[in-house]
Structure formats: structure tokens, C-alpha cells
Design goal:
- Strands 8-9-14-11 form a four-stranded antiparallel sheet. A three-stranded parallel sheet has the order 1-2-3, with helices on one face.
- A hairpin with a 2-residue loop joins strand 8 and strand 9.
- The chain contains six helices and 14 strands.
- The mean pLDDT is 95.
- It folds into two domains: 4-196, TIM Barrel; 214-291, Golgi alpha-mannosidase II (Immunoglobulin-like, Sandwich), CATH 2.60.40.
- With 292 residues, the protein is of the alpha/beta class.
- The relative contact order is 0.08.
């Protein structure tokens, strides 16, 4: 496991930051005396493999001196040969570093393009629909359901992305029961279906060409189709999977191989077993496909 660290350029209520903001970013007292030295100390003392930069969005990269910092990071810092960074280095209207500059891109919060990207990217999202922080007043409906989390996971990975999932802790660092439950549910799903996620790569298709909400990955010679909705008819038509290429299909978590037939377009129609999808196999249903 690699060690990464988060650092925010800004501090909303720091007097030096507020003074620079009032001066329309023509002064850099906060950057020179607080933010930049702190960031260099973080790199020098802890030597992380990844720096997740944030808090840039109110001001341009010239204010943060991002170019100069990155020059130091990649040429003179103790992690110059190993460090990986994201893309949050400065922002003004019509001129942002997001989705443009970085070892990998976060673009914006909850970025989920649902199409294959040419650059490595990450979906940074929250379990709480409305906040990154702990909220005492939050109600159950404010939190993503397990199904919504797994759906976001398979969408992200099928398009070559990494999922960064946030659970907002309390002031003393505790993870409250609703966050704990969601994380355990995610772990349970991954324990069963992890072969479709860990070490996988995007396949020829990301989303199925006929049936919505079917997302593909490939791993170790197998193709995986993650079906978000259990088919009410008991069958699902996979337009992205040609019948002539299929040797066998299994539903991960079920015992026997599934029956499949060819439809008139040459696609593959898969018959699902007689199971209760809410208790036997939950949330998103993964087909393991062996090809000829």
C-alpha cells in the first residue's frame, strides 16, 4: 500500500488569506508564510507517494505559485522520482488547471464522465449527498444507498477511473454508524465481486450498446458485465457481447453457469437464475464471461 496525503492551499478564515483575498490576490502573504512552507514541510518530512492538492479554486495559480512549487517538487524534492499529483493548482474563469494539468485528474467533485477517458482520472465523491463533512442534522435520505455507491463504482472503473469515497468524521475523528454501514456494505460487495474491479482494465465497450446500466471491465482473460438492475423479465440482452465470442457465463455468487442464446442481431441474451436479488446477491449483479 502506498502513502498519500491531502493538503488544501487555502484556509477560509485565516486572516492572512482574507487579507490577500481583499487585495484581489496582488499580495501573497498567506502563501509565503503559511501555505507554501507547510506544503514543503509535508513533502520533506513525510515523503508521500501521492499529493492530493485542493483548495485552489478561489484564485489563480500565479497566486499559489503552483508552477514554482511543482518545479521544486519534480526536480529538487526528496520524492521527485516517485511523487504523483492531481490537477488542482489554480482556478480563474476560463483558465483552470482542472482536467488539464496533473499526473491524474479529479476535474471537479463527483466527476463521473461515464465514457472512457484518455488520461488517468479519479471520481472523488461523498456518501453524504450534500456535504464532505459530518452533519449532525443529516437524515437517512441524505446518504447514498448501497446500490447507488456500487453503481458509481462500476461506472467509474469501467471508464478507467479510480473511486475516492468520502466519509465525513466527527470533530474527534469518529466514523458514525451510517458511514460505517455503507463502507462495510461496499467491502462485502467487493469481497464477492472484486475480480471485476481490482486490477481490471476497460474493455472494448464501457456501457452496453443495447441495455442501459450494464458496465464492462476485463481482467485476467475474462470479461465482466456489471448489471445495475435485476431484469424483471429474467433475461438481459447484451448488445456489446457477440454471441459467437462467448464460451460460458456465470453470475458471481450463484452456483451454476447461466444459459444464453443468440438474438437476431448476433448479440447475447442471458437468462438469470431464480434468486431473490435483494437477499441472495445484492445491489449490482456481476456476470463473469469466458470468451472463445
Amino acid at each position: 500500500m502506498r502513502f498519500g496525503t491531502y493538503h488544501s492551499w487555502m484556509e477560509w478564515l485565516n486572516p492572512l488569506y482574507l487579507e490577500d483575498k481583499a487585495n484581489n490576490w496582488t499580495t501573497r502573504n498567506f502563501v509565503k508564510t503559511k501555505s507554501r512552507p507547510e506544503r514543503e514541510e509535508l513533502i520533506t518530512k513525510y515523503k508521500p507517494d501521492l499529493l492530493w492538492s485542493d483548495g485552489e479554486y478561489e484564485s489563480p495559480e500565479e497566486y499559489w505559485e503552483s508552477t514554482d512549487f511543482l518545479s521544486w517538487l519534480y526536480n529538487d524534492s526528496p520524492v521527485k522520482d516517485t511523487i504523483v499529483v492531481n490537477d488542482r493548482w489554480g482556478n480563474v474563469p476560463n483558465r483552470t488547471t482542472n482536467c488539464k494539468h496533473g499526473g491524474y485528474w479529479n476535474c471537479w467533485d463527483k466527476y463521473n464522465p461515464k465514457v472512457l477517458q484518455t488520461h488517468k482520472w479519479e471520481n472523488a465523491m461523498t456518501i453524504d449527498r450534500n456535504a464532505w463533512t459530518f452533519r449532525r442534522e443529516a437524515v437517512l435520505e441524505d446518504f447514498l444507498s448501497p446500490k447507488e455507491i456500487m453503481e458509481t463504482l462500476v461506472q467509474t472503473v469501467s471508464c478507467g477511473g479510480n473511486l475516492l469515497i468520502n466519509a465525513g468524521p466527527t470533530h474527534d475523528g469518529r466514523i458514525t454508524p451510517i458511514f460505517e454501514e455503507r463502507l462495510k456494505q461496499m467491502g462485502l460487495w467487493l469481497k464477492r465481486n472484486g475480480e471485476a474491479i481490482y486490477g481490471s482494465k476497460p474493455w472494448t465497450h464501457q456501457n452496453d450498446t443495447i441495455t442501459p446500466d450494464v458496465w464492462y471491465t476485463q481482467n485476467d482473460g475474462k470479461v465482466y458485465a456489471s448489471v445495475v438492475h435485476w431484469p424483471e423479465s429474467g433475461r438481459v440482452l447484451l448488445g456489446g457481447l457477440k454471441y459467437s465470442t462467448v464460451a460460458s457465463i456465470q453470475l458471481i455468487g450463484a452456483k451454476d453457469s447461466l444459459q444464453f442464446t443468440e438474438d437476431k442481431s448476433g448479440s447475447t441474451e442471458v437468462t438469470f437464475p431464480a434468486l431473490n436479488p435483494d437477499t441472495d446477491i445484492q445491489w449490482v449483479y456481476v456476470l463473469r464471461i469466458s470468451t472463445k
